[in-house]
Amino acid sequence: MTDIFARALASELYPYLKQPIVIDNQPGATQVIGVKSALRAPDDGQTLLMGSVTNLAINVWTQKHLPYDPIKDLAPVGMLFTSPQFLVVRSSLRVESVRDLVALAKARPGEITYASIGVGSSAHLAGELFKSLAGIDIRHIPYKGTSQAITDIAAGRVDMLFTGGGLSYVEGDRDRLRILATTSTTRSAAAPGIPTMQEAGVPGYEASLWFSLMAPAGTPAAIVEKINHAVNLVLGSQSFKQKTDTLGVDVTPSTPNQLAERIQAEIPKWGAVITRLPGGGN
User: Fold this and answer.
1) Fewer Cβ neighbours under 10 Å: the N or C end of the chain?
2) Would you indicate the residue range of the signal peptide (predicted)?
């Protein structure tokens, strides 16, 4: 998804920036590798980081020796898109809504289980945020991958999961899987009939994955503004929309300041969740 989005953005930016853009995927360590690589580049606007704001915030609390400060070492350029997660439950659990699920969890404390792709993952923390805001006691079951987790949910061995791939998984197994809500603050354009967690009865809940463009700190403000302006023009164009409509993401153009505010809000938000976990925080 991110690679397709990045390549579509790069191809559409050329008329505005008048130079080719090379995509260099550097996965690993919840994007620490990519951030370190971007920070080794000169602060001249020629190297940008496309990555998850959510991971930037989570890493502050989960990485013991984080080799950078996301506030001091990165210059916000602009938001790109949000990717909602979906709350998927096994149909045999016999709950039709989030309110039903909360009521069941309160009636059976510690019995309802939720899967994730590992401790500290966005899916794990989405479940912990749900647990905290809904005032319920649900049990975490970590997996090595989403496919295995979904298989066990469909088989009735685990009760639920927050996942960005919820739509595709449920489409493939409607008899055994059900989506109750999306984690974004507004309904997803890809699934407008699915309520948000807030609409479904959990006030204040939001656990989307936010993606943005960043530059090394020290990049001149004029360069940042030029790139931001070009990116926002592309994000609003019909040709770009046609290239990215099938990705199931919500495009979210912003100013550099709005992105900075988002980062500053995400860090304490996830810190409050992580520090409540056993051994939480670095």
Assistant:
1) C
2) none
- Cα atoms found within 13 Å of the Cα of residue 239, Cβ hemisphere only: 9
Q: Can you identify the CATH homologous superfamily of domain 86-182?
A: Periplasmic binding protein-like II (3.40.190.10)
Chain region(s) in the chain for CATH 3.40.190.150: 2-82+208-274
Burial class (CB in 10 A: 0-12, 13-18, 19+), 20: exposed
Rounded to an integer, what distance in angstroms lies between the CA atom of residue 142 and that of residue 117?
6
| pTM (predicted TM-score) | 0.85
What is the Cα gyration radius of the chain? 19
Q: Which residues of 188-198 are buried (b: 16+ CB within 10 A; e: fewer)?
A: bebbeebbbbb
Contact 45, 215 (CB under 8 A): yes
